[in-house]
Specification:
By secondary structure, this protein is α+β, with helices and mostly antiparallel strands. It has two domains: 34-57 and 166-312 and 379-486, Outer membrane efflux proteins (OEP) (Up-down Bundle), CATH 1.20.1600; 72-155 and 329-363, no CATH class. It is built from nine helices and eleven strands. The two termini are 66 Å apart.
Length: 497
């Protein structure tokens, strides 16, 4: 029985060990490039923006397809009716019974250049019609066919077909730009959270190093106290330093797990997965030409193209507002022939021409100033738009100026932080020996430990800040100064995938 229990316990232990090993081996390790590549396919915001772009693309495809010839067939295979009606011409009641079958085939072609519609129609029907008046019954059984060509042309108004097409094109272009901007924003967010997670990993490593030093120093003081070589107050201080280091380590672990969750959410990775990021935390100074940066920002920013699209849309909206309740007309032309006969092959033995010409006008007389007020409101909206556009240009220039200044300042901060870290390490190593010799108190040694940890964090943070600002200047100017090449987040020659 005991052997059986031991055997079962061994199996459970081995299973747990294997599960733990698989869990460790399942940890996802990512570089910055891998994180950006993964987010391009799995980031929720980016997926939503891409779907929106594809929706506008399909709308544009549908709009273009609607400008081609449309073929339609309407069938009414069976229809029967019986009615009792009064004939005012003969002042008599009559009963009518009708049995019919019909179908209409149409080819309709919109004309984008004039907003007209040209259509060719053919209607074929058969009917059995009976009318009974005063006891007399008249019967008609015949086939009939009507073939005609018609043209419908609006006049004195704007081209709705062409404007709708242009609106669809601008909506699609705007969606593509929004997708490209979303990609840049995702790159910024992923980069920021990548470095935030990396910083949390570094802080945890620093806290682990602090704990090792605190444990070593605590053991040194403990041995001295037991040998009566130092007072107990040093032991108490070393014990407090050790407790603080352990608490700091736990805090950093919590911060690291929170940073992992935020990063996994942005990437689109399930939260139960474990992840680790790796990168080279070195920063080579990059020369950023301010004039070139400003010129690139003011000529290539996608937001400026969005402004141009909005301006054109407002122009079209003004056309529509002015056309509302305004003078307009319509011309309808139709030319065709009709034939009927009891015998189907003889339908067109005696055809009848059916020409039709109609001109109609809509003439507004008095609208109590509604049209004038709408036009004024649209003009005010346009003025507000132009003011906003001017402020956006200023904002772009200010952001470029601020980022360039930050880059210059951060280069100096990195140099200072690197020197501070080197000096702090030398100072700590020197004073650690003095601490072992009893020349320093535990409180003083803890201060040197904090100084070393802070200097390491400051250096890492300075390098990260510089890398983030380099990314900001790339997004602000659409120019990569590290590689000295322009950034092309969207092309108009090829379809965005």
């Amino acid at each position: 029985m005991i052997r059986k229990r031991l055997f079962i316990s061994a199996i459970i232990a081995l299973t747990a060990a294997a599960a733990l090993e698989n869990r460790v081996n399942a940890q996802i390790v990512m570089t910055m490039e891998q994180a950006l590549e993964y987010s391009a396919e799995h980031n929720p915001d980016l997926i939503n923006s891409r779907l929106s772009m594809e929706r506008y693309e399909q709308n544009l495809i549908a709009q273009k397809a609607s400008l081609k010839s449309r073929f339609s067939l309407n069938l009414e295979p069976f229809s029967y009716s019986q009615s009792r009606q009064f004939d005012s011409r003969f002042s008599d009641w009559y009963t009518n019974r009708s049995l019919s079958s019909s179908g209409t085939f149409s080819i309709s072609q919109p004309i984008i250049w004039t907003d007209a519609t040209l259509s060719l129609n053919n209607s074929l029907s058969w009917q059995n019609n009976e009318s009974t008046v005063g006891g007399n019954t008249n019967t008609n059984r015949a086939f009939s066919n009507r073939l005609y060509l018609s043209l419908n042309q609006p006049i004195f108004t704007y081209n709705r077909t062409k404007m709708n097409m242009r609106q669809m094109e601008m909506d699609y272009e705007n969606a593509r730009i929004s997708y490209a901007l979303q990609r840049l924003n995702v790159e910024r967010n992923i980069t920021s959270q990548f470095y935030s997670l990396f910083m949390s990993q570094q802080n945890l490593a620093i806290s682990e190093s602090e704990l090792e030093n605190a444990e070593r120093n605590f053991n040194i003081i403990k041995d001295k106290v037991e040998a009566d070589l130092t007072t107990k107050d040093e032991y108490y201080q070393a014990e407090l330093n050790l407790a603080q280091s352990r608490s700091s380590l736990e805090n950093q672990r919590v911060s690291l797990e929170n940073a992992k969750d935020n990063f996994k959410q942005s990437l689109g990775i399930p939260l139960e997965e474990d992840i680790k990021v790796v990168c080279d935390i070195e920063a080579e100074p990059v020369i950023v030409d301010f004039d070139k940066a400003l010129e690139s920002a003011l000529t290539t920013r996608l937001e400026l193209r969005q402004r141009e699209i909005s301006r054109e849309q407002q122009d079209m909206s003004m056309v529509q507002v002015k056309d509302n309740d305004s003078f307009n007309g319509n011309i309808s032309l139709s030319l065709g022939i009709m034939g009927d006969d009891p015998s189907f092959p003889d339908i067109y033995d005696n055809p009848t021409n059916n020409p039709r010409v109609a001109v109609s006008f809509s003439v507004p007389i008095f609208d109590w100033g509604a049209r004038k007020a709408r036009i004024k409101a649209a003009e005010i909206g346009r003025q507000m738009f132009e003011l906003s556009a001017e402020e956006e240009l200023k904002s772009i220039e200010m952001n470029v100026r601020s980022t360039c200044r930050s880059l210059d300042n951060l280069v100096g901060q990195i140099s200072i932080a690197e020197q501070s870290q080197r000096n702090a390490q030398l100072t700590y190593d020197l004073n650690e020996e003095r601490y072992r010799n009893g020349e320093l108190t535990g409180l003083q040694m803890n201060q040197f430990q904090n100084q070393l940890s802070n200097s390491k964090m400051s250096y890492t943070q300075a390098v990260i800040n510089y890398k983030v600002q380099l990314l900001n200047i790339k997004i602000l100017t659409l120019y990569d100064f590290e590689k000295n090449v322009p950034v092309v987040p969207i092309t108009y020659e090829q379809k965005t995938k």
